[in-house]
Amino acid sequence: MANKIKILLVEDDHNLGFVIQDQLKGEGYDVIFASDGVEGLKKFNDHPVQMCIFDVMMPKKDGFTLAKDVRKVNREVPILFLTAKNQTEDKIEGFKVGADDYLTKPFSTEEFLLRVKAILRRVQLIESEDLETKYSLGNIEFDSEDYKLKYADGEEQSLTKKEAKILLLLVQNLNKVLPRDVVLNAVWGQDDYFVGRSLDVFITKLRKYLKPDESVKINNIHGVGFKMTIGDE
Question: Could you tell me the pTM of the whole model?
Answer without folding.
Answer: 0.64
